[in-house]
């Protein structure tokens, strides 16, 4: 169970149907939505805050805020994934550049 699912299921509010997590799960393609560790940690902290708000006030206090937070967490997680992909691409391009420079130096 990922952090956003944990937040929503533990609060009794349920997963918003338009969340990325729900879209991935409904396609049934076997992809498990695994969140970045930093995002999971942040989601856990947010859950603790929501839990204390729910205990102090009621579930209605966080009901409309919950889907927004989930979407923000999903976007943040996607950004981390994209950064990792760009870092890999950058390393490959650096290696290609190094090889091209070496070839150029040999031919000169």
Automatic annotation (TrEMBL):
One of its GO terms (biological process) is vesicle-mediated transport. One of its GO terms (cellular component) is cytoplasm. Residues 22-108 form the RH1 domain. PROSITE patterns: RH1 (PS51776). Keywords: Coiled coil. Residues 76-103 form a coiled coil. GO terms for molecular function: JUN kinase binding; kinesin binding; MAP-kinase scaffold activity; signaling receptor complex adaptor activity. It comes from the Eukaryota. PANTHER family: JNK-INTERACTING PROTEIN 3, JNK/SAPK-ASSOCIATED PROTEIN. This is RH1 domain-containing protein. It comes from Caligus rogercresseyi (Sea louse). The lineage of its organism: Eukaryota, Metazoa, Ecdysozoa, Arthropoda, Crustacea.
